Amino acid sequence: MDTGQDTYAFLSPDPSIQRGSLAAHVTDQLRTAIMTSRLEPGTMLNKSEICTRLGVSRAPVAEAFARLQAEGFVDILPQRGTTVTFLSVRDVEELVFIRKGLECHAVWLLAQRATPDLLDALDENIAAQRDTANKDERDRFHDLDSAFHDMLISSLSFRRIRAMVESVRNNLSRARQMTNTPQRIAMGIDEHADMVDALRARDGNRAAWVMAQHLEGIITEVARLSRERPELFNDDITIHDSGTIRRALSS
C-alpha cells in the first residue's frame, strides 16, 4: 500500500525538541499514527517524506523505524522498505489472553483494596467517557478508556505489571480503534460502570467476570473486522463469533 504526501499531514516539526530526543519524538508521532490507524496496516512508509515533514535528518527516522520494529508496529524489509505491520488474528487472541490474565486478577485484588478516592476518580472518568461518546469524539474516548484501565493497574503499585499491560494494550490499540463502533463504545462504557459497581460492592469475582467479558469483546469485534476487511490481516486465520480460531479453507 503506497502513500502520498497527504498521508503524512498529521506530522509537524517541533523546534523545541532537542537533538538527542529527535528519535523518540519521531517514534512517538509514528507510533500514535499507527495505533490510531492514520497509518493503516500494509502502508509503506516513505522515509524521505517523513524527514521533510518533521524537518529532521534520516538518522532519527531510521532509529524510530528500528524502535517501532522492536515494538511490533512495523516490518523492515531489506531492499524493499518499511511497512506498517498487518493485523494478525492469532496475535489478537494472544494479547487478549495476556490482558485477561493480568487485569482480571487486578480487579479481583482491587475489590478489597479500592479506596473511595479511586472509586470516585473512576466514576469521573466514566462520566467523561459518556460525554465524549455523545459527541462522537473517538480519539478522546480512546484516551479516557486507556486512562480507566491504567488507574486500575496503577492503584496496585505493581510497576512491572503496569508496563506489561501498557505494552499489550498498545499492540491491541489498532484493532480496537478500527472496531470501536458507537454501539461497542456504549457497551464498553456500561461494562466499565459495572466493574466499578462490583469494586464498590467488594465483589472481586463479579469484577473479574465483567473484566473478562469486556476484554473478550475485542475478539468479537476483530472477528467482524477480519471478515469485512481481510486485506488488513496477514494470515489465513479468522476469529469466529464463538471466539475460536479456525484456518480458512483454501479453494
Automatic annotation (TrEMBL):
Pfam families from the UniProt entry: FCD, GntR
Domain HTH gntR-type: 20-87
Keyword terms, alphabetized: DNA-binding, Transcription, Transcription regulation
SMART domains xref list: FCD (SM00895), HTH_GNTR (SM00345)
InterPro entries the UniProt entry points to: GntR_C, TF_FadR/GntR_C, Tscrpt_reg_HTH_GntR, WH-like_DNA-bd_sf, WH_DNA-bd_sf
GO molecular function: DNA binding; DNA-binding transcription factor activity
UniProt protein name: DNA-binding transcriptional regulator, GntR family
Species name: Pelagibacterium luteolum
Taxonomic classification: Bacteria, Pseudomonadati, Pseudomonadota, Alphaproteobacteria, Hyphomicrobiales
